[in-house]
Amino acid sequence: MEEKYMLAYDCGTTAVKTVVIRMDGTVIGESRADNPLIQMNPGWAEQDPEVLWERICRTTKDVIKKHRISPQNIAGLVFVAHWKNIIPVSKEGQVLHNSIIWMDSRAARQAARLNEAAGCFVGTGQEYWPRLMWLKETKPEIWDKADKIMGLNTYFKWRATGQFVTEPSDDFIHAYNPAMQEYYNRVLAAAGLKEDVSKFPPVRPAAREVGKTTPQAAAEMGLAPGISVFGGFGDLPAITVGTGCCQKIWRTYTLEPPHGW
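Request: output the structure for the sequence above.
Response:
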């Protein structure tokens, strides 16, 4: 019986690392490619999602070629990516704006208004919701045309499978915890975003399969169609779970929540 492998992707702010792993957890090897950062103004930080996807495809081809692994022997893919990216995508699948990434702090004015409207400190101009407000207010033509607003992990899964779905660590619209959901609802209302929630992806547990590689994605990645793609993580929760120090986080992000949680 031929040996099967998983591919795990760690997309950080500065680089993509693609790792091939035996099913017993043994790391076989990795490939790395640098990620360019776009800073058009002080405090701004963007990345081109198409360029990041190209890095995913390039490192995939490189690592399986380097270790002489047949694409037919790849059993699954999982993406880990930095959180709170904002990627607007049209109904036709066109990326409408560079990803506004977690370190971007352009939305200071929106943050001040949001904190006042919410009656509590939600965050600075680097927080997720004020950056959504900035996009809606300053780029209304993009906001109106956007059918979907994606994080980076969601974008990679969408490119790989055609499925629009996020995972709990990068979802700031929905929450399993009722108290957290109440807080999100309050923030979204104060930010003027409540009527826009349909633009955001549904959430699935991190360990669940969300789809399979499409023929187009498989050709771009140098893989076979029909490979299982799993929910994955944001980078910080992945580190936390990977250390084995917090079993409750593992349960929260990988399994369906218990009744009433």
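The longest helix spans residues 49-66.
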